[in-house]
User: What shape does this take?
Amino acid sequence: MPTSEADPIGVWAASLSLYSAAISRTVRLSNRRPVVVWTVLAGRSAIGRKGYALGTATAVLTKVIGGFIHTRKRSGVASGPSLVDMLSGLELETMGQDGGIDGRCVLIEEEWASVLKDQKKCSKFSTMFRTAWDGKPISNRTKKDGLQSVAQPLLGFHGHITPGEWAKYVSSSEALGGSYNRLLPVKVERSKMLPYNNRPELPDVSVLREAFEWAEEDDRSMYFSVEAGKRFDEIRAVVEDKMAQLPELLASYMERSAEQVQRVAAVLTATEMEEEISREAVEAAWAFVSFSMESVEALVKESAAEAPKPIKSPEELVKEVLKRHGGEASSSDLLRPLWGKLNASQIKEAVEGMDDVEVITERTGGRGAPRIVYRLTEGQDEKPKQAKVISMRPKPKTPKSPVITNVFESLI
Assistant: This one.
């Protein structure tokens, strides 16, 4: 890290995604579920150093899993059928090889927001994406190829997004449906500013390369030690207690936190060439997942703060202006502040459906159009709405003198 401007937590998150995907064919949890860890870096453009974090992780791991990264990295998958087609194609390519079928893949979405936008067009994607994380079969039927199926998806994922894009594209309905609780988002920012001529110094990764070879040699089943199992149960209780105190939307992002701890702990244990997960590995995994939970909480709250205010209905706008005018306003007084939001016909249509506003037509007796007045009648029982007509025509003047009138009549 001394020679990288990336956020350390971002480098570790990217490393976990890449390495867990690379060992996913032979390393599994004791219940046969995958160990893949899906991470997302959330940071502002440029100063978040998201690409720098991925670049640092890739540089460190190149001498360990460089072949996997080079041949199994994909991006831009935006539909359920294309996801099945990609994973199925990888399995077909490796049929008959000495190592057996190999469907491992890692999706790297450095512009995740644009992909999320396209994914919303496919109703099948979110379901298949969730199922792939679970390691359960996914399938799709096409006219050309018939049924395509993947019995045990081995899909890794790593994405980048800005907090503003999170607010715009990570929908509440998808979150409540479970689409995002398979992900571990972490907020990142630049750790330091280095000189322009800085050159990264990569660490010795021979021990990690040896651990990868150990993982590939045979099937590995990762299980808790007694102490680790007890600590894991305590963490599960903590997570569920926290979820019970949070709003449903926020809690929905954390529903898989306990299993995330198990997966991260399994990956860390595999780097030590052990199958028994220690308490120390569980604690390390819990530290990372806790940080992700805090990041999610911050992102969701920021999204709520940045969300546009709900658009008011025409009825609400009309009532708001009438109250501002003391409960009564002419059509021109009502239209003026609503200019650009409602026109005269829209105001008329809105008022026709409002039981607490009456329309009064005042006729002046002149040649001009009658004056329309809108009046609030809140708290009164209204009959079916009819415009009241009030005549403003001047009354005929009473003769000043009956004598003058009689003189005229006699002359006539």
